What we know:
Blueprint: H1 8-23, E1 36-38, H2 40-44, E2 56-59, E3 62-65, H3 70-73, H4 90-93, H5 110-126, E4 128-133, H6 146-170, E5 176-180, E6 184-188, E7 193-198, H7 202-206, E8 211-216, E9 238-240
Parallel strand pairs: 1-4
Antiparallel strand pairs: 2-3, 3-4, 5-6, 6-9, 7-8
Helix pairs in contact: 5-6
Pfam families: Cyt-b5 (PF00173)
Keywords: Lipid-binding, Steroid-binding
Family: Belongs to the cytochrome b5 family. MAPR subfamily.
Amino acid sequence: MRWSPFLGIPFCFALLSFLLFKIFPFNSPHNQPEHRLFTVEELALYNGSDPQLPILLGILGSVFDVTKGKSHYGAGGGYNHFAGRDASRAFVSGNFTGDGLTDSLRGLSSTEVKSIVEWRDFYSRTYILMGKLVGRYYDIEGNPTKYLKGAEAKAARGAQLLEKQKNEEAQVPSCNSRWSQDEGSEVWCDDGYPRLVQRPVEIALTGKMSKRCACFKEDELVQSGLEVYNGCDYFATKCRL
């Protein structure tokens, strides 16, 4: 029985494909190394004090390599307090010492949590994600915890409230304002009369009630809750504060 020379072609092709795969593996996410899980102690080693190690930073449990920004995150840099730890709270609190350098978001408003989530998204776009920090936001298997899910849900709620406030306030234009050292502050309306009005959504956003200056037309001044500036005439279109 004679063997056809063509029978060896499929075998040679398969062998060649195998060798090429070994030398140049397919660039699939499944072929990439898994992200590392860090402990708090391990992450602390990458605080920029050892020039032989990369500089890592954690935020909401995500760990990023910020070595390319070592002039900022390295020893002596203005942002070095973020290196080697997860100091999520400090991104909005501005407290860079002691208890302020913590990953706890306890007591923060929805807009503050939203800002922290946006900072994490910034690092995702700008730096390389190296892994996850085991603790408050990820468990020992790298799965998101209820704290991370809660923070993301609170941030989403903050975004919804901000959009609601924006839409509500767009219906009543804000006052113009300016300040000078000689004349101080003043507010005025190009069309209407300046009034202080409460921002009801603000208490849900920040936990505090605040007011803004808005312009109302004459037939709208009968609404309740409108406050005339101290020292300002009822029908004045400009008020010096």
